[in-house]
Structure prediction request, 1192 residues.
Amino acid sequence: MVNAFAYVPAIVLLPFFSFLVALGAGRYLPKGGAFGGIAATAGSFLLSVWVAATVAGGRAYDETLYYWASEGGAGIGPTDIELTFGVLIDPLSALMLVIVTLVALLVHVFSLGYMNDEGETGLPRYYAGLGLFTASMLGFVVADNLLMAFMFFELVGLCSYLLIGFHFREPGPPSAAKKAFLVTRFGDYFFLVGVVAVFATFGTAQFAGPESFPALADAALNGSGSVAWTPGGLDLGTWLTVVGLLVLGGVVGKSAQFPLHTWLPDAMEGPTPVSALIHAATMVAAGVYLVARMYGFYVLTPTTMAVIAFVGGFTALFAATMGVVKDELKQVLAYSTISQYGYMMLALGAGGYVAAVFHLTTHAFFKALLFLGAGSVIIAMHHNEDMWDMGGLKSKMPVTYYTFLAGSLALAGIFPFAGFWSKDEILYEALVHGLNDPLLLGGYLMGLLAVPVTAFYTFRMVFLTFHGEPRSDTARDPESVRWNVKGPLTVLGSLAVVTGLINMVPVQKVLGLEGIDLLHRWLDNEWGGIEGLSSHHYADIGPYSSAYLVGGEVGTVLVGAAVSLGLALLGLGLAWRLYNVPSPTEHTAKLGGIKDVLYNNYYLDELQVWLAYRTEDVAGGANTFDQGIIDGVVNGVSSVSLTGGGRIRKLQSGVVSQYAALLTFGLVALLLVLGATGGWFL
Amino acid sequence: MILEALMAAAFVGALTVFLAPDEWAGRLAFAISLIPFVGSLYLWSGFEAGGNALLGGEIAYATQIEWLEVGGRSVSWFVGLDGISLPLFVLTTFLVPLAILSAWTPVDARQSQFYGLMLFMEANLLGVFAALDFFLWFVFWEAVLVPMYFLIGIWGGPRRKYAAIKFFVYTNAASLLMFIGFMSLVFALGDSVSSFALPEIAQAIAAGDLGTWFGIPPDRVAMVAFLAMFLGFAVKVPIVPFHTWLPDAHVQAPTPASVLLAGVLLKMGTYALLRFNFTMLPEQASMLAIPIAAIAVISVIYGAMLALAQKDLKRIVAYSSVSSMGYVILGLVVFTEYGIGGATFQMVAHGLISGLMFMAVGVIYNATHTRMVGDMAGMADRMPVTVGILVAGAFGYMGLPLMAGFAGEFFIFVGSLSAPALPYAPVFTALAMFGIVIVAGYLLSAMQSTLFGPFELETDYEVGPAAFHDVAPLAVLLVAIIVLGVAPDIFFEMIRDAAVPVVEGVTIDG
Prediction:
């Protein structure tokens, strides 16, 4: 039988080849290499589906494929380590493969409409970037160890730099690209220290198996094993918490969590399909995926879990508030992304492993949908993104409107769209675990508060864009879009409606139906998987216990869902009242000074710019010190030793041939002396 | 005799080119420089790792011929390679042809002399990495300075004479210090060694043969020798605070000289530190581990901060070399397989990457006649391929995975965090690693303001794409950097083999 797992490297390599082809021959190819990219991602998608089907058939795969360095191991002090590349296919990575390749494929198709049809230049570079981006993300997804994950994580960062800065002839995009790479690099610094620390502590960075670092950490904490190294004086639990937080630095950077979220709204400078890819399935998803990938490690340290939950809950609320006042379509979506990944982090920190993966899945579809829908609107509006210039697009672009509406309902968490189910499960997990844990409860409350805010800004966006009267000439006569735009929208629109079906936990609990919590069973290795990488295992070794409100489990499910749905409808209703009118006005102005704070993102960007300038000041000071003091001493010493500057000037004014003569003389003299003492001439 | 043949090819080539007419000196020099390169590939393909040349390992391609006698000890023509020197030998033969190509456009005066000096320098550089006798090594070591001095002094920028003299005097004074340091070791060994062969001396010291010298106890002699040699090599590397000759030399040097200066000459310093200080006197090295690691960290951070403050592209790359060499020192002082192996690997990786950066900046300079940030913007519009490769190289410098720089840096970091030989190793490592953020800061900022945005440059001529022979060496270097980053074991394996005996030289308490 042909083994699907043997083709996993091809999933990664196909988009990589499309990168090479587009880069090398894109200008000679039709559509600037787009078809190569489409074919490659389509191939990767089909292979991914095959791989997922194989996992559903009860198999999994964990194999080292390449020794990057030191086959057989080399010493780092406490232990010998090998640095390898390998593939880990379990339910989690198989699911992620399907999501990433599907979104990448749709983004490629959409790009035909957004880039080619709009007459953009530099298309080979664009498709090369998309290909490399997809390949890097896929390499990250299948990575079987933390080092390999880090390496592809960094390559994802490079690709985001290249694509955000795609329009390099304008001043804005290169600046945004720099910011994206630099801010995430700052997070990756901690991640890299964490990777090195994992190697030092465990001698391995494998994710899966009895010799993996999560398993070794578990054993060491149980007392049934030990680690190779901890830094002097630190007890094991503290050290593992530190390591977990270090790796989390990279997650906070890439998944745009507070306080490293500032790069993401700027990243809207990139072409819109790239935004869809970054936000839905690649870069931003990478952070959350990493936590899920090494969840068996994180659940061992309660402090790290609490930090993750709190940062996530805070980010969810914090980013949502900023989304309320933005004027540009993509800006609203950018803040919604930050906020939604905050929910996923909240879920992970709250022990809701499945809930987080569920939301990662639904969000991938509805956020890709919303960005592509925004791209469609932007085409129609001749690249004007200001919502105050839109209005009334509903009747002129029905496909975009209805799919965008589906995505918005999902984002706002309205029953029965996909986002409702996943967000509800996150809040449920945070609630039942948080009733015993005040910090977690704080995260839950922030996540809950963010629900009406999310619904409000989402529908403010929908109403301003599609409803009411057109507020500009372009809105009155928008450009039409073609199949290559409508096709991907339709696919994603359907997914935004139905993806919730993969995990009907509340229905199961309330009605007592068995077996409709497919995602739970999938991630619990019910079909196939790897020992130690299952949701049950994580729950067993995790720090949380459940508590319920009145009415036990069913009651809590119902109350939780009712509260969050009620709040979402409240936000939606407010948006309806304020903005679903023929000629809406800027009600946000009523917020007064708060609006300025929100509009300026709590002045966090200013803070980071200020920090950057202070760093430059320090650098300038160092430079003055270097030139004045250190080099001054050097020159001073040399002028003293050559008895005054006069002689130096005389030396320096001499002709070079004099030095030549001097040097040659010196060498000859040396050889003569050596020859004489060594008896050469005798 | 292959080693000798390759060195002789460079040397005879130098003389030939020197006498050749200017018109085809460049092409002739390039053709000749391919001989050592092809030869070194042959050496590489036939190389079988066999430990450390200084510590009793098998020496590949060795020749040892008695030459003369100084002070009762024999000096011999003693050359050979091991897993540490072979990669650097190959690096040199690889970079020289590319550096010669990069000279075709900018060098338009006294070509035959220029290319002759380049080849003469190559011959000596190869000698430095191949020599296993102290005197022979020292002759090559000093002789390298001569062509570099002339390359800067004749073909350099406006302040070339100041820079050339500073370079020459500074590094020469350092050589003197180092010479004295090493000689005191030899004398303290007394009759236990009969030659200046480095393996014999290293093994004698390891065997505990250091004796009292003029009433100074052996420990004291070893420590003084260590410090003298360390200071001597520190200038060459260069380590803060002995680095100020470097930016001056780089800024004034013509591009091809910068390429070899950053690519190979700096590695002479770290190579010598490894061979002399860390291989011969490991006990002293681990006694001084904390101050050395502190200097390494300071070099990384301080060098990066200085690079951040610069406005001249070449100065930025020059200071970043100080930063990168700090990583190498950290890798050496931790005495682990990954640390010392990574340091050696980083020498090669940095040689390629800094060579690429200097070359690319040079290609842009050929077109713009300025290197100042602020004088130009949006160069990507006019020189897309050059800029593309420069961006790739810059990411290599930032330690992008699957490029050579990441491998070197990661080996060093993973080798140093938990190193038993260095107290507070986690602190030093974590501090040094922060360099990867600063390097991204200054390189990205410099690229943003010069390469991207709307095109701006005041010229009275059209700025267009660079010639093929300007871009080709950049592309070749980039490919080499990626190959080494994807498959670092092609060098790292032999490096490790030669590094293990060095690591074993340190005994760790507890």
Summary: The beta strands of chain B are 60-70, 73-81, 376-377, 456-457. Chain B has a mean pLDDT of 91.
